[in-house]
Automatic annotation (TrEMBL), chain A:
Pfam families: RabGAP-TBC. Gene3D superfamilies: putative rabgap domain of human tbc1 domain family member 14 like domains (1.10.8.270), Ypt/Rab-GAP domain of gyp1p, domain 3 (1.10.472.80). The keyword Nucleotide-binding does not apply. This is TBC1 domain family member 25. The gene is LOC105367859. Residues 197-407 form the Rab-GAP TBC domain. GO terms for molecular function: GTPase activator activity. It comes from Ceratosolen solmsi marchali.
TrEMBL record, chain B:
InterPro entries: P-loop_NTPase, Rab_GTPases_membrane_traffic, Small_GTP-bd, Small_GTPase. This is Ras-related protein Rab-2. The gene is LOC105359393. Its main location: membrane. It comes from Ceratosolen solmsi marchali. PANTHER family: DRAB11-RELATED. GO terms for cellular component: Golgi apparatus. It is found in: Endomembrane system; Golgi apparatus. The keyword Protein transport applies. It is a lipid-anchor. Coiled coil: none annotated.
Amino acid sequence: MDSSPRDAVRVKVKKCEIRHRPEYRKFSVDPQITTIEVLQSLLIKAFDIKGEFTVSYRAVDEYGAEAYYFIVSDWDLDAAFFDASEPYLYLQVNLKPFGETSECESDWEQNIQHVATRPELGFAYKTPRLPGIIMNKMEKTLNLVQRAFGNLSEELNQASIQPPREPLTDAEFRKFLDPIGQIIQSKELRAVIYFGGIEPSLRKVVWKHILNVYPDGMSGLERMDYMKRKAQEYINLRDAWKNLMQNGQNIGDLGYVTSMVRKDVLRTDRHHKFYGGSDDNQNTASLFNILTTYALNHPSVSYCQGMSDLASPLLVTMRDEAQAYICLCALMKRLQENFMLNGIAMTTKFAHLSEGLQYYDPEFYAYLKLHQADDLLFCYRWLLLEMKREFALDEAMRMLEVLWASLPAVPPPNGELSLVEVKFPPSSPPPSPNIKQIRENAYTKVCALRRQSSSASVNSIKKRNINTDDPLTENDTGELERSISHQQSKPESECLDVIKNRKNTPPEKCFSLDSIPSLNPKKLMTTLLDFDQKLGSSGGLDQQVKTQASKCARVVRNLNEFLNFTSLNKSRVIPSNDSEVPIKMSTDDSALHNNHDESNSPDDLTDFLPMTTSITRELRLELESLDRQVFGPSPPVKDQQCDCNISKQEHEIIESEAETELPKCSPATDVFVWENPLHTLQNKQNPATPDEQVELEYDGEIIEDQNGVKSVTPIRLFKQTARYDDVSDSDGTDSWPQNSAATDSVTPPVVQEQCEEVTELTNLIPVGISDDEQQLGTDSLPPPSEFGGGNPFLMFLCITLLLQHRDYVIRNQMDYNEMAMHFDKMVRRHNVTKVLNQARRLFASYLKRHANKSEYVNS
Amino acid sequence: MSYAYLFKYIIIGDTGVGKSCLLLQFTDKRFQPVHDLTIGVEFGARMITIDGKQIKLQIWDTAGQEAFRSITRSYYRGAAGALLVYDITRRETFNHLTTWLEDARQHSNSNMVIMLIGNKSDLDARREVKREEGEAFAREHGLVFMETSAKTAANVEEAFINTAKEIYEKIQEGVFDINNEANGIKIGPSHSPTIPGGISGPGGQGSAQGGGCC
């Protein structure tokens, strides 16, 4: 990316209109001051356009193919300037919105008419002549808000296109190893990766650490042996089914899985050079082997579409089938629940995303609601694949490592990462003419078991869970009450029974874990905030380690402990929120492990929990016909809760296999990471109630562009996101001088500046006294251990994408479909650095609030 | 962009039968042999003209794999038309039609128009399902039937448009309650398609023209 600002970009434009000959123009613009609005007005002027139109630019993508990308926002335009403006920026104007850009032939050089332009005067063209584009003041404001979001403070463009830190280098990585190669500061390592990613050449090594492939405390040699052993284990697993296949026994499940996987690997990242070329690409074949082995040896998950997207970057990085398989197993420990047929984990994530969006952008949420898009189903792919497909593969790898690094380290329990759930083919009588029968039976049994236990788990949910919210309502906290009553009056929904049953059951029955001695919730919070601190504070790594050790954060390695923990935490601080039920349920699922139902009958699903969204949607439609009020969320219901439910999933995250372990306290190093050791902060802001959230605050802000042109613009502050806005203009009670002072030490001087920014952001948390507990809990998002099903950063990535496109969506008055199409068209086109930067900022402020809260509770 | 009606479609069927390719052929008039596998649902839209009226088709292309059915189901609701697709070169995709149909009938409104589509008709050499079988299945279940090729575009327009025609006729007959959006039909912002609605002003006419396909 060419980051050096240029004075002028030469632009060639072709206008395409159905049934007309293309027209050409050329002109120059100053990339520093040309916004999309300016560009649009230039184009209108140049071609005398009267209708709506779209603008796209020509780029040669990573695969060497020419492609047109829509310019729909300022950052698209920035991307065009940066990526595709040498020697000319080729634009195509289509008079039909989102039309077929490829239909015009690319005879660029002929007939170009020169247009004299003075980009500085671009604004002069912003006249009411723009029929399709609303250009009123509000629009400008929104645009600037978006910019403000994308570009913190004055570093208008630079900041947002620079990561806060350079990628981890080999030399730096070595600092995290002791003389025998043990990782000594895994949290700090994660922090460094979280801020800057990893140099691509180093990924092969470091990914295995952040994916939790290795048990704790292994030396370099031990790791090598371990991987060797694991790789051999994989080879054996793979050869088992390969042999069957070669013997012509590609039948039953083997046949089913292989045909499904084959179909999908042939359309997974094929435009990337690694998987490109003909269908017999060896890497594609490796991907096939990996996925087939995984599916056959994990019958409760089997193969589901989307897994190929998850495995693909692992193979690209590892360049080794066995190692990629091992990584996939580690990754799937966390993600398998996404693929469960009951959809519970996904439902939770949708619910949390919805909550998050309501919190950060109530106005946009209201817009979505108005267009019945607040189910956010168009984000399904984001959540299922953890955004992998939203970025070009190479950029997706950066995003993924940052995301993985944002998660707590969860070393495989029992000193060993398990590569199988149930070995395939299941050990049964030796091969015989009946082998087919036997194998099928064995598998069928597993499936049947899965189904049974699944219904069992649902039943148990029905019986045990009193928890209030049902998945139906969770998308819509504000309307919880109404929804519930509504459900009760709506007997046709299968969920009702579930709900009622849940309601009738006393909380204690959820899990009988309440007897475990409670832990101090505050110890749980070892956060990335912490990372911030560390990065920015202390004189060096060693010192950090000491500090860390002395913190002796509590390790929660046990389900009971954990449950109790969060239950305490929950009951004291966090209001019952809608997320609980789905979490709890997925927990039930995961606890049973084999209960995943893969029934072939679609009807089985509806027996328990129909996807939240359809029902909520329906409910909501009806509700809305009763109550047209868009902006009036009713007060959240928080009296019902079953705290113990929450944490099972966390347990799952922390330690999915060691459910029987006893509680213990371990050194800080293998801790659950959400802790802010600096407990001195208090939240100055009183958390707003949901009602308050809806209000917007307007604040004057001076925007100065790089030409020095100042404009005072009302910038909307999303209430309570508080966030970096407040932070940056600093409610400057900098309570952590020590940190700011020490900023320089950790990161290389090169990146010092950015680092400071980050540290500053996270350090400048407003200090104040929190109000009473109730208020603390009122409006808050779920805590980091729960938010996004235990992956809060993913939520912020999603929210960031929504925020970055909200202006465009609103400006164009997009309906549900158009919005979904818009985001579909953005696949692989989001700018990873900008998205990560904004997501990190949101995440930092979120962690801060939660750190404060937990501090309050414990004081 | 103004339209007289908006119809919501859903495309369903086994994985790999060409649902996304049919959609792409219809909306973009192109065939993309290597297409990302659909996760959850993807979306498309196009204007067509029936009886002189602009009709906007809003098409939801669903993932075929079973794991997504819990989400797919939530899309049946509020669809006026469904394209149920199988692959004529893979018998099993035909065998699964009954399940799909049951699923669709169970979760959609009863008036939803379902078009059965045998796709990949260009691959006649590898055909495993005879045309007659498709016709028989359609007859038996009261569906409209067509063989298409997303690759050559054969019958693709017709499949989408004929479905729309049928929905349109049902509207004329008063079968659909067009005021209930849950039926997958919406009346356009302006009742008369000749008056451009919304904010587009002079752009209205242009865009209406541009959207026309036939």
